[in-house]
Specification:
Chain lengths: 296, 683
């Protein structure tokens, strides 16, 4: 088994990005993500040149008087937020034309993304955990977030292979009971299950204060039925097959996809979870910036 | 136009057209399998859409489907049907053969003689080919249709003989009557009526519609056997009549062309005395042309003929017309009282009435008076003079024999009264000629009184016929102060009162003597005894007197017109015996019934009713029925019958062979396109 590589260059690029909170500013730059509570101890970090939109009350007037420049005082909240990565390794992830540097599948894109997040967050000092749903070849169970869990996370991601059915509803329900409040859960999945089923489990997590972010991995070629000629399509999960003529179904498929994405967004929006569409041919830095920023 | 199927059940196989479609769909079952991670989405597609297949090689599929369809259609034996066909003889056990022998069937075709000859030949061939069990009857059409067999006969040889004996008639087409007779022969027991006809003439076919409908209702079937000329054409004399015009008048002839090309028709008008006038008449196709032939200033009256040259149908090449005597009727006026002045002359008014524009003008007007003294009667020439007026002649005895001879030879003697006339001398001299002996002059009114009026004469008489259009009232204004009385008499065929004074006293009495006639005017011809010459009717009456009485002695007094094939009735004296009718080709069969002689002319031309020793009793100008000359087909018996019995009159065109050829062509196309398609797929 080869070691799972990660994109160091990519990490450099995204290091400058901020893991900003969506709803709370208290956690700004403290742990790199939004704090769920008001910080009890605020530590000065550095200055930053004022930019339009920055809070006026954070302007350091003394420095401004000395240098004749407006600078902002930046602080870091002393809040530690554990991040749990949930990676879908079901059989359906094994398809698609993913990046060539791993497995050329959606799953390859998914674990690359998860490993990058794990290294980034770990480098920032955030405890990172991992829960792999379905799949085969990994130890199973979950790796709880901790300061030294990164190697185990990387090892688990490198060893898992897509197989089986995710059954997101059960997996998320069990995980939700185990996650502490004020934690962050980032789920990387193709979401090929009924949103009406797994949505409530995610909602239960969000209700407990977990910041849920969903990275929706998909292959545009699959969703667009981008095949040159008629083909028998089969599901790796249950071997169900269907002979299709792509040319005749393409328009109908587009409609189904649009409806499906709208449905997913509706469910996630209902439970205040962010949704990040992640086509596997999209540059990873842009995607990670979106995920870490908590904005789709 | 309708489509029928010989084997309609075979159309059920048309479902096989689906086979190529299925084959094309099955062919599209993909060979390759592809792992697909969005089956969850695919399953959200509606099931009908999910299974949708795209048909490729549409041209090939179309050709294959058409190939299957063409094969199936050829097996189903399609037939195209449209009305207008002539049905075949159905071989029934009862058959009536109707043969049209009307005049138009005499039309000569290019090679095969007349249409009738062809119709006879075809009918004979048919009868000879019939099975012996078939009973056959024969009906002919011309004139009044008639049966040639009493009923349906099994002796085909006898039937053939009857058909072969059918002769051409000059008569019209009685198709309706013929079909009625045929229907009666079948007696409602079904069977077929084969009609051999040229269908020529306006309204002939339409007139038979009701009978055809009845025949069909009674279970019979009409089977038309049209006998047509390839290029029917005929020129015919449609009409000929004499009328006024330059010289001696004109004979107006109308010639019709019933062909498809214009033609120049040589036309000859033959006057009664044998004079021929020839001209060429240009007639457009399907049209008529009228030509006026100028008659000489002098011509005998009688029946003239018109002849044209047309070989196609000769029967209607002749027409006939009545021609009055044309030219000067020499009138000898014997002056009995010259008087002291011209106006006082007995003949002053008469001369002007006979020749109003002078003596020379009489040449053109047809009356040329010669005025003479009584002694001039010696110069009377029966060959020259037609009429002699004896006006107020005191003593005719010296010339009595001369006058009697003149009248017996056909001359007309008009005696007018006056103060010079002596009843005794006149009665003695002209006893053989006078209608009734004279008695004496009688005053009808005193001097200064208006005189007694003249009774209005009967315009049915030829003498007074010109006044039928007007001027008859002028007779009432003729007043008489004096007239000669005569011995009582009774009107007979020999003696008739033509005019009288109001109250009944005879004024103008006619007597037929020998070949001639004598007219006795009991008044004066001048103004001595009345105002006759001063009235408007004077001149026309005198002119009519000369024209009517001055006809040649060999002309008949009764003229008629007739049509070939239609009965002509002529009244004849009951006492006359041995009355015959002479037609252009000789004696015509006649029937004498109740004082009339009846006959049916079978050719155009002059017909005369003759009795030995006397002029013709009547002359009849006979012409053809113009409708029968129209040899063109205006309606189709088949079409008319088809409207009544559509099922039997359908054209049928089998299409299976065409479908088979189409299938073969499609098969070749399928192979060609298939190879090309496979080549493209392989590439």
């Amino acid at each position: 088994m080869s070691e799972v590589p990660w994109d160091v260059e990519l990490l450099d690029r995204i290091e400058r990005l901020h893991l900003s909170a969506r709803r709370a500013v208290e956690g700004w730059r403290h742990g790199g993500h939004t704090s769920r509570t008001i910080a009890t101890n605020i530590e000065f970090v550095d200055h930053k040149e004022y930019a339009p939109g920055d809070p006026i009350r954070h302007v350091d007037w003394k420095v401004a008087a000395r240098t004749d420049k407006l600078v902002i005082r930046r602080h870091e909240a002393e809040t530690i937020v554990p991040v749990m990565l949930v990676v879908d390794a079901s059989g359906d992830l094994g398809t698609g034309q993913g990046p060539p540097d791993l497995e050329r599948s959606k799953f390859g894109a998914a674990i690359t993304m998860a490993a990058t997040l794990a290294v980034f967050l770990s480098n920032r000092g955030d405890p990172v955990g991992l829960k792999i749903v379905a799949g085969t070849g990994h130890p199973g169970g979950r790796i709880p977030p901790g300061p030294r869990s990164l190697p185990a996370v990387i090892r688990a991601l490198a060893s898992v292979r897509p197989a089986g059915v995710a059954n997101l509803h059960d997996a998320l329900a069990r995980l939700g009971e185990q996650l502490p409040r004020r934690s962050v859960a980032i789920m990387v999945s193709d979401l090929m299950e009924d949103p009406a089923k797994w949505g409530p489990s995610l909602g239960a997590m969000a209700a407990r204060g977990v910041d849920c972010r969903v990275v929706h991995v998909y292959d545009p070629a699959e969703w667009g039925l981008d095949y040159a000629k008629p083909v028998v399509l089969f599901s790796p999960e249950d071997e169900a097959s269907l002979a299709v003529d792509p040319e005749t179904l393409r328009d109908a498929m587009n409609t189904v996809v649009d409806d499906y994405v709208a449905e997913v967004r509706g469910v996630l929006g209902r439970y205040r979870c962010s949704h990040h569409l992640a086509p596997i041919d999209r540059p990873l830095d842009l995607l990670l910036a979106s995920v870490l920023g908590g904005r789709p | 136009m309708t489509m029928t199927w010989g084997a309609p059940l075979a159309l059920g196989i048309l479902a096989m057209v689906a086979l190529p479609v299925l084959a094309h769909l099955i062919r599209r079952r993909p060979d390759s399998r592809q792992a697909f991670g969005a089956m969850f989405l695919l399953e959200r597609l509606p099931r009908t859409i999910r299974r949708r297949r795209r048909i490729e090689d549409k041209l090939l599929l179309l050709l294959r489907a058409l190939l299957v369809a063409a094969v199936v259609v050829s097996v189903a034996r399609p037939q195209l049907q449209w009305p207008g066909a002539v049905p075949e003889f159905g071989g029934s056990e009862a058959l009536v053969v109707v043969v049209d022998d009307s005049m138009s069937m005499g039309l000569r075709d290019a090679d095969s003689g007349t249409l009738l000859a062809r119709a006879r030949r075809d009918a004979v061939d048919l009868v000879e080919s019939l099975p012996s069990s078939t009973r056959v009857g024969v009906v002919r059409v011309g004139g009044t249709a008639s049966k040639l067999t009493d009923g349906l006969e099994s002796d085909h040889a006898a039937v053939v003989a009857k058909i072969e004996a059918i002769e051409q008639t000059p008569y019209a087409t009685d198709l309706q009557g013929a079909i009625r007779l045929a229907r009666q022969m079948l007696a409602g027991a079904g069977g077929e009526v084969l009609v051999y006809t040229d269908e020529a003439g306006q309204g002939v076919v339409e007139g038979a519609e009701a009978e055809i409908a009845l025949l069909t209702e009674q279970g019979g079937a009409l089977v038309p056997r049209p006998v047509h000329s390839e290029d029917p054409g005929n020129a015919a004399v449609v009409s000929a009549s004499y009328g006024s015009g330059p010289e001696g008048g004109t004979v107006t002839v109308t010639v019709a062309n019933f062909g498809s090309e214009s033609m120049e028709v040589p036309t000859r008008v033959v006057l009664p005395e044998g004079v021929e006038i020839t001209a060429f008449v240009q007639v457009d196709a399907g049209g008529e042309a009228t030509k006026a032939f100028t008659v000489p200033r002098v011509a005998d009256g009688g029946i003239g003929t018109v002849r044209i040259d047309d070989d196609r149908l000769a029967a209607d090449n002749v027409g006939s017309f009545h021609l009055p005597t044309i030219g000067a009727s020499r009138v000898l006026v014997v002056e009995g009282d010259p008087g002291l002045t011209p106006v006082a002359s007995e003949t002053y008014y008469l001369e002007r009435a006979l020749a109003p524009w002078g003596r020379l003008s009489g040449m053109g007007n047809g009356v040329l008076p010669d005025i003479t003294a009584p002694s001039g009667v010696a110069e009377l020439d029966p060959e020259l003079h037609r009429v002699v007026f004896m006006t107020n002649v005191a003593d005719p005895r010296p010339w009595a024999n001369r006058l009697v001879e003149f009248v017996n030879q056909g001359g007309v003697l008009v005696l007018t009264m006056g103060d010079n006339v002596s009843a005794d001398r006149t009665n003695a001299a002209l006893a053989q000629l006078l209608p009734t002996p004279l008695r004496r002059p009688r005053s009808l009114a005193a001097a200064g009184e208006p005189g007694r009026a003249t009774a209005v004469p009967d315009t049915e008489r030829l003498l007074f016929a010109p006044f039928a259009r007007g001027g008859l009232a002028g007779f009432s204004r003729i007043r008489w102060h004096r007239v000669f009385t005569v011995d009582p008499y009774t009107d007979t065929d020999e003696v008739q009162t033509l005019m009288s004074v109001e109250g009944g006293m005879p004024l103008l009495i006619e007597r037929k003597v020998g070949k001639g006639r004598v007219l006795l005017l009991t008044g004066s011809i001048d103004a001595d005894w009345g105002n006759f010459p001063l009235q408007s009717v004077y001149m026309p009456l005198v002119q009519s007197l000369v024209r009517v009485l001055g006809v040649p002695s060999n002309e008949a007094s009764l003229t008629q017109v007739g049509t070939v094939g239609r009965p002509i009735v002529v009244p004849v004296p009951a006492s006359m015996a041995a009355i015959t009718v002479e037609g252009p080709s000789g004696p015509v069969p006649t029937t004498l019934i109740d004082g009339t002689i009846r006959f049916v002319p079978n050719e155009a031309g002059a017909h005369r009713v003759m009795s030995p020793g006397i002029p013709p009793l009547a002359s009849i100008a006979v012409n053809m029925d113009g409708a029968e000359s129209d040899v063109r087909r205006h309606n189709s018996l088949a079409k008319t019958s088809a409207e009544i019995d559509p099922e039997r009159f359908m054209h049928t065109a089998p299409l299976d062979r065409y479908a088979l050829w189409l299938a073969l062509a499609l098969a070749v196309a399928v192979v060609t396109v298939s190879r090309r398609t496979e080549g493209l797929h392989a590439a």
